[in-house]
Amino acid sequence: MSVSVGSSFNVEDVLRPSMKEGGHEDVEPKVEQLMNKLKKLQQGKRATEEEVKEAHSLRDSLQEELDALQTEAYQLEGVHKEKEELCRVLQFQCEEMEQDSTRQQQLNRKSEDLIEQYRCQIQETKLKHRKHRMKFENQLQQLIEQHKNLHSVFSPDRLPAEIESVENTKSQLLKAEQLKLSQLCHLEESLDEARRQTPTDPADRRTD
């Protein structure tokens, strides 16, 4: 509650009505009462002024706090926007990595299927060569036996040369077959090495 006391307050103005009504005998008690009342009013005024000062101080403090909160809210809004943008970027990168992973898995399956196909072809080729070798050895053995049986027909001097020629032919054919088998084994080892080096995770291809 605000109480204002004018600076032009005059005690005589307060005493004048009382002097007119009651005479001089009532002046002193009324003056004392009015002085006490004036003191109370002045004390009330000072208390009110202090309250006004405190209210102003509280208002300024609350205004500063409000400004600080608004600044912090603005900063937090900026941080929130940055995090949203970062989240979108990470989401996009995650989707790209998932797509890369899917493509890499498909490539790995194709590579494994191709390697398995080559392995089967190598096994089939080995089996064919083994059958051909056995057939050749049988035919060669039959041929040797025939040459041995023809000892009575051919001259004894030429027979050892014929046998040696057949043995040389056999040796050359065996060497050729061993070379082919060695090449097939080398090819199979290369396929195994390629399959081991094939990355199974797209993260192996990323360095960042």
Describe what this molecule looks like in 3D:
It comes from Coregonus suidteri. With 208 residues, the chain is an all-alpha fold. Helix content is 84%, strand content 0%. The protein has helices at residues 11-22, 27-149, 159-197. Helix 1 (11-22) packs across helix 2 (27-149). The protein is rod-shaped, with a radius of gyration of 59 Å.
Topology:
Elements lengths: L10 H12 L4 H123 L9 H39 L11
Helix pairs in contact: 1-2, 2-3
Q: Outline of this structure?
A:
Helices cover 84% and strands 0% of the residues. The protein is mainly alpha-helical and 208 residues long.
Helix residue percentage? over 70%
Query: What's the SSE pattern?
Result: HHH
Instruction: Name the structural class.
Output: mainly alpha
Oligomer: single chain
Report the mean per-residue pLDDT as an integer.
Answer: 78
Largest sheet: none
> Count of helices?
3
Low-confidence stretches: 1-12, 17-25, 202-208
Distance between the termini: 71 Å
Q: How would you sum up the global shape? A: rod-shaped
Residue fraction in strands: under 5%
Radius of gyration from the alpha-carbon trace, in angstroms: 59 Å
| Number of E strands | 0
Family: Belongs to the SYCE family.
Coiled coil: 31-153
Protein name: Synaptonemal complex central element protein 1
Region (Disordered): 1-26
